[in-house]
Each structure stands twice: as structure tokens, then as C-alpha cells.
Amino acid sequence: MKGLRILLIAGLFAILGSTMSKSPTLPLYAQSLGLAKEEIGLVAAASTVTGILVNFSSGLLSDIYGRRRLLKMSGFVFLSAPLLYFLAKDALVLALVRVYYGVATAIFVPVSFALISDLYPDRKGTFMGLMSSATLVGRALAPILAGSIIYLLGFSAVFILCSLTGMVAFALTFKFPDTGRHLQRFEFSFSGALLLVGLLDAAIYMAYQGIETFLPLFYYLQGKAWLSGLILTLEISIMAAVKPYAGYLSDRIGRIKPITAGMSLVGLTMLIFAFSGSLSLIISGAVLFSLGASISEASTKPLATEISKLRGTALGFLESIKDIGQAAGPVLIGFLGLRAGFAFIGAFGIAVLLVFLASLRYVRAD
């Protein structure tokens, strides 16, 4: 279990630092440089685009060269990327810094989960849930910590602290056991089952990012930014608490039942957000969404490693599809409107679930 503890601590520090660098730091720092709102939006999207492109390749490379080598690379980026903010004086350079920083998370997330799957095949659901919780704790602490430091000491102190958290993560990667090396060359056989699992996660993150983006715009939350923040913090807290137990449940009863229950809850909560007429319904929807998302996602990642023997590649593919969904959620809601947008995402998630359940008889390990 020592290896697991090291992984959890590294995950906490890595995600704490990367999240501090962007929330609420990035838009405030970009504004201080004189960037326009349009430029700030493009800069903020840069790291997400990186994730879409790098997640899959990092998982594949970890299957070829081993997990530890890739995780060392991500640790070095976590350490060095925050210091590059000092060089950013315009939108282009700041976007390039965000692209470089995005590489760290895009490597670390799928490869660390693949390492857990390698080390603990019989308890991977539980331990992947613990890893998710560790990173969620980092995400939850980061905004208030970074905001306080900016207020008291300025941006430079935040960037230095982000680099220090990255240094901790980088140092711990040298203690990781080395697994992987399942491939001798670049190869990946496309799996329809794996795509469906990825689309399930994509639907969850379409919903999550849509809620995070548009929650403050509901008319009974306008002018109450503190309440919107409290609801979003409640979501993250529930996810952090539930995921290890959901992973344990997945290890005990299998992956399909939790995915079915979780995605059904996600679909229901999207309808609640679409047609809600009261604050109490919104809060209830946020709680139910957190439960559903946690239950489903605690099973999709272990299932991906069972569909394909190339665990790193499978998890990297899953993360890429998830990032596409996360980027698409706010765009869809912005285009369709709050009611139609949330309803569409809910319907999409249920439709993918039904196709997934109908195709189960064709699921076979590679």
C-alpha cells in the first residue's frame, strides 16, 4: 500500500498546483496583462485542447515505455510550467504556457490510473476512486488558496507555490514502481465498446462543465455568486467522498449496475436543471448529479482496463473523449439555451447508456 499512498500524495499536489494556476488565477492574471475577454477565453481553452490531443498518446506511450517514465515527464512539467508565467506578456505566450501546462495533467491522469490498474487489479475500482478523491481535494482547495494568496501577496507568489507543489509531485514520481511496457511498437485496435464507455464519461462531463459554467446565470442565483460557489463546492465534496465507496461497490458487484444507476441519475438531474423552478430543486439536482456522476465514473475507468489489455492506451482514449465532452457542454448549452441545452445533454447520456447496454453481448477483452 506504500505505492498507493505515494500516488495519492503526488496526485493531490499535482492537481492542487495545476488548478491554482488557473482558478481564479488565469483570468485575473490575463486581465492584468491587458488581454481582452475574447483572448482570455482562447487562453483558457488552450489546455483543454492539449488534453484532447495528449491523453491518448500519453497512455499509448506508457504501454510502450512504462508508466514511471511518462509520470516523471509529467512531474517535470508540473514543476517547470508555473515559472513560465513570468515570461508571459501577451495572449500568444500565455496560451503557449497553458498548452505546455496542459501536457502535465494529460499525461498524469490516464497514466496514474493505468499504474493503479497494473498494481491492484482486484481492487482497482476502489483505489481509482481514492485517486479521484485525492485529485478532487486538490481541485477544491486550489481556488480559495490561490485567491487568498493573490489578495495578500500577488500573482508571483501563486506561481512559485504552484512550482513547489509540482516539485513535490516530480520528486515522488521517482518512487513509483515501473509497470507497462505491454507494446513493442505503436498499435491500437479500435474498440466500439471502449468508445461507448468514453461517451458515457463525455456525457457526464458535458453536464458537469455545463453546470459549472451556467449555474450562476439561473435567475434565482443571479447576484448571489457566493451561493453558486457553495453549490459547486458541495458537488466536488460529494464526489470526493463518494468515489472510493462507489469504486468499492464496483469491485464487489461489477461495473454494469453502477454505470446504469449512475447514468440514470445524471439523465434525471439534467431534466431537473432544464425544468426547475426553484432553488431547492437546483440544490437537489446538484446533489443527485454528484452522486450519479461518482457512481458511474467509478466503474467506467476500471471497465476500460478490462475491455482492453492496453490499460494506458484505453484510459488515455477515455480521457480524450471525456475532454471533448467537457469542451462541448458549455457550447451546446450556450447555443441551445439553458432549458433545451440541459435537456439535450440528459437525453444524450441516456441514449448512450441504452446503446451501451444493448451492445454488452459484444463486449470482449482484446
Any key phrases for this structure?
366 residues, mainly alpha, Growth Hormone, Chain: A, 2 domains, globular
Topology (SSEs and partners):
Layout: H1 2-20, H2 25-32, H3 37-65, H4 67-80, H5 91-119, H6 124-153, H7 155-173, H8 192-214, H9 225-253, H10 256-275, H11 279-307, H12 311-336, H13 338-358
Helix pairs in contact: 1-5, 1-6, 1-7, 2-3, 3-4, 3-5, 3-12, 4-5, 4-7, 5-6, 5-12, 6-7, 6-9, 6-11, 8-11, 8-12, 8-13, 9-11, 10-11, 10-13, 11-12, 12-13
Shape: globular
Instruction: Give me the strand/helix succession.
Output: HHHHHHHHHHHHH
Distance between the termini: 29 Å
If classified by CATH, what would the architecture of the largest domain be? Up-down Bundle
Strand fraction band? Answer: under 5%
Protein structure class? mainly alpha
Average pLDDT number: 90
Number of strands: 0
What is the third-level CATH name, the topology of the largest domain?
A: Growth Hormone, Chain: A
Low-confidence stretches: none
Radius of gyration: 20 Å
Q: Report the major sheet.
A: none
Count of helical segments?
13
Helix content: over 70%
CATH class of the largest domain: Mainly Alpha
CATH superfamily of the largest domain: MFS general substrate transporter like domains
